[in-house]
Amino acid sequence: MxxxxxxxxxxxxxxxxKTAAKIPVVIVLDNVRSxxxxxxxxxxxxxxxxxxxxxxxxxxxxxxxxxHKTALGATESVDWQYFLHTGDALVQLxxxxxxxxxxxxxxxxxxxxxxxxxxxxxxxxxxxHEIRGVEQAIVDMxxxxxxxxxxxxxxxxxxxxxxxxxxWEFFRKLSATIG
Amino acid sequence: MxxxxxxxxxxxxxxxxKTAAKIPVVIVLDNVRSxxxxxxxxxxxxxxxxxxxxxxxxxxxxxxxxxHKTALGATESVDWQYFLHTGDALVQLxxxxxxxxxxxxxxxxxxxxxxxxxxxxxxxxxxxHEIRGVEQAIVDMxxxxxxxxxxxxxxxxxxxxxxxxxxWEFFRKLSATIG
Lengths: 179, 179
Known about the structure:
2 copies of one chain form a homodimer. The first copy, chain A, contains 7 helices and 7 strands, in the order αβαβααβαβββαβα. By secondary structure, chain A is an alpha/beta fold. The first copy, chain A, has one domain (21-178): 3-Layer(aba) Sandwich (Alpha/beta knot). The two termini of chain A are 28 Å apart.
């Protein structure tokens, strides 16, 4: 099996990406501390054609050398906005018809593999601080909590890995929308 | 929805993890440069009860401060071995009945969501260097190449994110084995 060269992958240019169909998903980063994680979320959002990334609170915004290290240019293709308060982002999203899902371990959280992603639905997926997770006040404003089932010794996954898994799961179920 | 405290998650202790049922998956890191990525793979492998992580070539081994930053102790729970040559790891795995799958974009690669994970199968999943990917010689020794479908401007995902997505997908399909 011959490995393909980058040019054989026929990826789209940034300009084409801007107007290409997206999956109806917005990623909300609620006070994510690490620029490594933020950059990685951009790169994953590029790969799976996420609509937009909302950067909130202490989450750093591009352009920044540390974000670029893991985003590798995906901050140019993927749309983003900054909000000082995560709550303001959620108010706007709900007004625009998005179902708000915090990725958290909470009472009544739904396991990722059981969460019913609906065709025609629009989803905002909220990821929180590396230690504190999503703030309780933001969880309280959410329609659902989605939990990634975990069976080991540690309490959580890296933020960029959690985002990768959840975005992939939503992409699998919504990718018909990008043809 | 009240967020759960860490102690309410009832994660297992390291000793219990050692003897707990695992999914029949070994992760092979073929010359992964970043200790951040290696640590993150350990943390994900802990969450989804991966059998073992095989660290090959230039891939750093624990204990190391830089691995610990992202593994956060998962190098204590998850079994691992070091191989100077990735090929030697693959020879051992094939001898022990593992189907070897390189995660690569190659001619005849199978898209992740289409790959038939079989009950009763044992899988070695090979992830490569951050820039070069899995070496062609290692791809040549593999039974399959699995590709994560990507629809953006960039050519690949971060190694730790790729590993998260692929491990999650195999876990979803094999988790019946851990009851």
